[in-house]
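Something for you to look into today, if you have time. Just paste the record in under my message, thanks.
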Amino acid sequence: MNEMTGLEQLKTMMEGNIPRPPMAETIPSDLVEAEDGYVKFLVKADKRHLNPMGGIHGGFSASVMDTITGCAVHTMMEAGVGYTTINLNVKMIRPIPIDVELIAEGRIINRSRRLAVSEGIIKDENGKIYASGSATCMILT
């Protein structure tokens, strides 16, 4: 894996040639598109994500946002270079529906030698926005 760029790793994962991370089971998500600076996932909250009030816990949106913003950064990493999230901002615009497939997209806003900034959005197939956010990642060389 250290010989592949971040984008190569994600594409290899999409093809099923390397396993998905266990987090993809905790937060049901399928990577369906990855390009330089961009990722698209399909995500679906289920009963495991319910809070005591019967709604989807805000941690679902936060975890998805961390995934899509981080993976957008991951697409820009050279072989052997890592990153870590140092700041995550999430705006929960409307409740996440249960058992409904949503689209989650992440994009790079800026990358410098030591930091990368990305943004994300969770929406339905009609473009209705459920959450948006941004992240700053430190590049680890």
About this structure: The helical segments are 6-14, 23-26, 58-74.
